[in-house]
Queue: 2 jobs
Job 1
Amino acid sequence: MNIKLSDREETVLRVIVDEYINSSQPVGSRYVSKTGFLSLSPASIRNIMSDLEDKGFIIQPHISSGRVPTDTGFKYYIDKFIAISSNDIRELENEFQDLNAVNVRSMFDSISRKLGDLTHSIGFVISPKLNTMYLKHIEFIRLNSDTVLTVIVTKSGIVHNMLMNINESIKDNDLVGVANYLNEKFKDKTLLEVKEQLVNEMRDKKDKVNELTEKVMQVSQNLFKDADFGSEIILHGTSNIIGQPEFKDTEKLKDFLRAFEEKHFAYQILERCMRENGVKIFIGSDLGSDSVEELGLVTKPYLRDDKTIGTLGVIGPKRMKYPEVIPIVDFTAEIITNLLKKLGGSNEK
């Protein structure tokens, strides 16, 4: 933050943000004076509020109303006044003590639900891209003559089902043979490595192909052509914010959530989080859309082998209770990182 506020200005800003978070209503100088944090008259406090407005930290939404924080004001408040205490950590450890990573998809579901419940907002987890996960098992189940259900199980316990079109000449025993070949040859490889090695094999064995290799090539080509190995977005708690005053226009909120669930926006958030570790906060205009100017996001990436593979966070009104939300998001990301590490050590093995 480039602008440094005086102690008095910081105190007034803090009172305004705290009260606005609690009430969602503009805050007047009389209220600030009554809190007793500053032994100043309402007139003196009005002067300080006028200075804060000139500097871009608060605005007066209506001529006869008090002030509300701007995005800049919220960010200053977060940078200056929020710290994680040991009590926060102990309380969160109790909340998450029963969490385990036996099934990672189930774990992500539980975590997004817990984030929503604890913050009274929307909790979300963006899962790792499937092609970065390590293969444990693959199976093909024929549904009809030219359609197969492919079941991919990763070392982390994520199960991915997809429909695949195949040539009718490929029989059930061919599918079993291809699955056995892939499971034996590529177990403990990432799906991206599986694809790359299969492409190389197809090129190298072009002139000397046996029957099994030919079936593997046919099935694999369809597998990777039809596959969507992108991240999954798991959301819980939309009902927590639907009734908030900021979202009387529910269509704006629905548009945002639709864009988020369709992954384009979520991938942008993930990419921004991947550039650096730590909690990141997106407030109002940071989100890049007028339709969501009243929203705030608090996010943090989680890691595997010291690399960012996904992110989680909370979506809520930009007046959300940051002193509560930030420690929750921060601690939860550390929990996922540690659980993924315990699940199987390095490389999930």
Job 2
Amino acid sequence: MADIVFAFDAALDRPIPLPAAAPPTVIELLARAPWEAFEAAVTTARQSRAAALVLFGSSLDPVRASPAQAARLAAMIIELAADGCQTIWISDDAADCANVARALAEPAGLSFVTPVAPQRLDIRGLSVEICSARGPAFATTGTGQLLPSFASAHSSLLPAQRRIVVGWDDAWSTLHADGTPVLHGLHAPLPGGSTPAAGTFFVWGSRRLQAVPAGVHPLPALQARAGNEAAAGACGALTLTNLGGTASLASSYHPVLPVAAPHSPATTAIHSATAAASLAADGRAAWREVATHRVAWRTLALTSLSGGDEELATAIWGALESLTPDPNGPLQIVRCAIDCGGSLTRRVHVSEISAETFARLRQLFDPQSFRMWCQDLEADRSEGVESLVRNASSSKSGATASFASLLAEQVLEAEKSGAGTAPREAAWLALELMEST
């Protein structure tokens, strides 16, 4: 059971990029994935008898979306409303809300939240306020703040017993350069140094893998679009009331007090939420993620020290079969990383035979019974730095050797500074290019 279901970055009008040479079956599965992921979130809301489905992030662009896409989404919103579940669309400003409402023909059960207009709901006897931690005021001036309470504009109302604060970053623009303009918004859920009121619950949507303050609940997109995202895809289910408890939780009163403004443009309106953690600890709120993805990306690592394309294809196919993918489960897009034992010659050879190896693998692929597609095949660029330094030291004489030595020094410095794997990956590629020329 859940009281509110959260769906981040449904991206219903943006198709997932297609892998090269993908067969029609894989293309069809990728094309259906965003909508099927959204349908999974809707099903979660319906089956859990949720009072609200909260959409935030890039759900559907009213300018890009086709009339058929808009009509399909509107029909799903109306069906949810018939089951007693309201759809709450969080947007950056009132103009966006008007455009979405017009594109969807104002379906029954759809309402909106903006940074200056939160929404008050009654959920199983609890007064719940949903508000946004986004908007141009936060991004450009740093002086914006969360509204103290919906009740501040309605003197006859008591403060809300629960407050749901929703925010998200702009990782869409940085992960997927498809020409989408950068949105107004906050780039990370950094603590602002102030303590939020009791009864506040924080949800943070992002396609990036990032650290969040204690008490902030990160949520990935419904469906990932590439292998560099935080998770394959899920929706969030929040239970505010424990109906099996001995005490009446609906009668417990936790008024929500004003939240302080951030101190700089880089500081988000989502503050360090210790109260949210205590709220979950006392049984009044429970958070869980429900998988919604229909496509997942994974890396398959295996060792191949010798042999041609036939031997390599056989080894890869055997490794894929051992994974025993569910015939009815999500499609898995696989990247094969070949450990060459530190041999630069073998790394170059793997690159040379990759096309022939792919051809053999795709001859074995049966889309009806095997839900895996091999997209990339390359020598493992995360192989140990010791092997990289050894190969750089044994490079040819002259300018090539000097460059290789400098390359090794730069990688060692990067490893010491904790710069990640990018310098090592680039160095392996450079050594392979020098070896093949």
